[in-house]
Amino acid sequence: MPLPAASADLGAFEGTAPAAAIGAALVDTHGRVHRDLRISLTDRCSLRCTYCMPEQGNEWLAKTSILTLDEIVRIARVAAADGITTFRLTGGEPLLRTDIVEVVRRLSAITGPDGRPVEIAMTTNGIRLPELLPALVEAGLTRLNISIDTLRRDRFHALTRRDRLDDVRDGIAAAGASGLRPLKLNAVAMRDVNDDELVDLVEFATAHDAQMRFIEQMPLDAGHTWDRSRMVTQDEILTALSARWTLTPVPGRGGAPAARWTLDGGPHTVGVIASVTAPFCGDCDRLRLTADGQLRNCLFSTTEYDLLPILRGGGDDGEVDGMLRSCVHGKLPGHAINDPSFLQPARGMNAIGG
Description:
- This protein has 354 residues and is of the alpha/beta class.
- Helices cover 27% and strands 16% of the residues.
- The protein contains 10 helices and 12 strands.
- The chain has helices spanning 69-81, 100-108, 129-139, 153-160, 165-178, 198-207, 234-242, 308-312, 317-329, 349-352; strands at residues 36-40, 86-90, 119-124, 143-147, 183-189, 211-216, 247-249, 259-263, 269-273, 286-289, 294-296, 305-306.
- It has a 12-stranded mixed beta sheet.
């Protein structure tokens, strides 16, 4: 399917959404109501994780194509009017954006149709948190997810190609002391890389009053070398953790990507995002906005909806709303990772947004 021409009449494109006024809920053809917009602020990162991007030869987005703060806020205001209640800031590494505090401040001032402020969350590697977190909290940041795949310095260096483990741990310590809750730590579970650290990572998380979340490795690496047979599955993760704790499922997952279990009855929990072996597409309520203004209705989508011509070509908010609705209307029932016809997205994870 070709990308819709953003500045043209949206109704002229096959598969686009029927006309609706700003303020109507963003509901796809499968009845899913969308409430979460993940906003990538940059494709650049201070690490070079092997499952995300190559160490050298990255083709960075052109600076002129990166959304400005005003453009981000404009899209967010329309999205909030349509029922989006959570904006999650991602990258690349969102803390590399020089105006990150002002991004949080401007977005946190947005309210929905009911007058309630939106929630501002962030996924980060944590490296710049010690210096930026106080200002981010004051600006309105409400939740944090921090990525840490290993507690061993040699493995961290090999996996990220950078010797920054102490910086990440300092960032987690700062987050733990900040009072932002729930605090979540994310780790991609990888065979023969960190699959012997699962218990250690959970114990590290609970020591910081955080929830550890393990992510099944997905086909989003820039080199397209993902091998399903090498993936550590949810069942394997739970088996490893069950040797240490009694795990009890937590009901009421809703649209959250992680299924959760209490550890020995609580209060701490562990989560698993099993996008491959236990897809949760039927409850997905998320949309994604790339740093260069492309809307995506699925992490694995091969179709994008370009907002830049609207934003920079004199289009009005009704056209922004129309593109949001076209994106939602085009959402498939699932990502089809387990289907033989599955095609990995051309963009790597750093360019899509976490």
